[in-house]
Amino acid sequence: MILKKVVIITNIPSPYRVDFFYYLQENVKKYEFHVIYSSVRNTSRQWHADENRIQNSCFLKSYNIKIKKRYDEHDIYIPYGVGKVLSNLKPDVVVAMEYNPTILMAMHWCRKHKVKYISWTDGTLNSEKNISKIQRLCRKYIISRADAFIGSSTASRETQIAYGASPEKCHISYLTVDLEKYIRKKESYGNRQLVCVGGLIVRKGVDLLLNALALTDSSITLVVVGDGGERERLIKQAESLGIADRVTFRGFLEGEELYQCYAQSDAFVLPTREDCFGLVTLEAMCAQLPVISSQYADGARDLIEKDVTGIIVDPYDEKAFAKAIEELVMDTDRLEKMGKAGFERINRFSFENVSKGYVEAIDSVITE
Q1: Cα–Cα distance measured from residue 97 to residue 8, given in angstroms and rounded to the nearest whole number
Q2: What is the rounded CA–CA span in Å between residue 220 and residue 322?
Q3: Beta-carbon neighbour count of residue 41 at 10 Å?
Q4: CB neighbours of 367 closer than 8 A, spacing ≥ 6?
Q5: Does the N-terminal or the C-terminal CB of the chain have fewer CB atoms within 10 Å?
Q6: Sign of the Cα pseudo-torsion (285, 352, 173, 227, in order)
């Protein structure tokens, strides 16, 4: 039997995407999956994907342009040759991520060759609230021509609908990680250590967390995992707040060192000003950590059951933020109860479950 061929187009081989694509290739046997990447890697990211899992993939030659956004920089890839690659692969379906130049070229190729096109996004109305008029028009243009849609969260699906997608054609396939890599049994709670993981850029809101930490009991400490242009300013901020002895900057960590940071902490904090999901929250839940998440992490509504598996706060309200931290971290029983409750819910984000919405979207256009 000749399998229907699905080509996925995305920007770079980020580890969590590579792992998910590998799962599809190895476990969804009714389709043959290929992946096209716009670039080898993002120069602003330090993580690395498992090259052994990069299968049936190719990398386009492209120019990389950095665009200054409100809180950080964004990479735009201007590729060439995507049409030629698609012509060689002869896909039955193309699933294309976001709305960049690569995607526009791919969509036009699909329309010319009468190939089904699925639009896939992580974006939300919140994460895209400051995009330009041209970018909004581009989204509406692509969505009006797509055959189906995949959103990485409830908020992403709502955004596609807001741009004109038919609700009945919208499917959810949650953003996720390979859960098995992060699952760790929590031995105990009570050391009053918080952990925050993310790039040290303004958007991630670590400065807001430091302001709140300064208002909490002096026994509460913080480990910051990540690196970036804001590192030195954040170190000086901690010093000026008088909490330098309570904050440890570990730099970028991955693998066992990162897992140990989760294991040694009592709670995870995501103070972001803007995030379309907040994938590190799921990593922390795998380590049985209760979560204190910013309300501006759009994945929080899918990841966190409020006051059961975690707490959702406004990080700009430093007094309320500090109170939430202190009340949770000083209560060992509550820490354990929330951590276990979160761990019991992570299976919702397993590759097996997440792939269902992805495959349903493909099925819907194949059977039309």
Answers
A1: 8
A2: 11
A3: 17
A4: none
A5: N
A6: positive
CB atoms within 10 A of CB 133: 7
Note the pTM of the prediction, 2 decimals: 0.90
Q: Say how far apart CA 14 and CA 34 lie, in whole Å.
A: 16
User: pLDDT tens digits for 119-137?
Assistant: 999 999 998 988 889 999 9
Residues in CB range of 251: below 8 A, 6 or more apart = 225, 226, 227
CA angle 186, 292, 204 (to 5 degrees): 115
If residue 223 lies in a helix (H) or strand (E), which one and from where to where? strand 221-225
Could you please report the per-residue DSSP string of 301-329?
HHH--BTTTEEEE-TT-HHHHHHHHHHHH
Number of Cβ atoms within 10 Å of the Cβ of 52? 8
- How wide is the angle at C-alpha 21 spanned by C-alphas 98 and 293, nearest 5°? 65
Six token digits for residue 138: 């581009």
Q: Is 23 exposed, middle or buried (0-12, 13-18, 19+ CB in 10 A)?
A: buried
- Dihedral through CA 212, CA 213, CA 217, CA 218, nearest 10? -150
The Cβ-side half-sphere exposure at 14, using a 13 Å CA radius, reads 14
The 10s digit of each residue's pLDDT in 164-202 is 999 999 999 999 999 998 998 898 999 999 999 999 999
Q: What is the DSSP letter of 54?
A: -
Sheet with strand 221-225: strands edge to edge: 247-251, 221-225, 193-197, 267-270, 291-294, 310-313
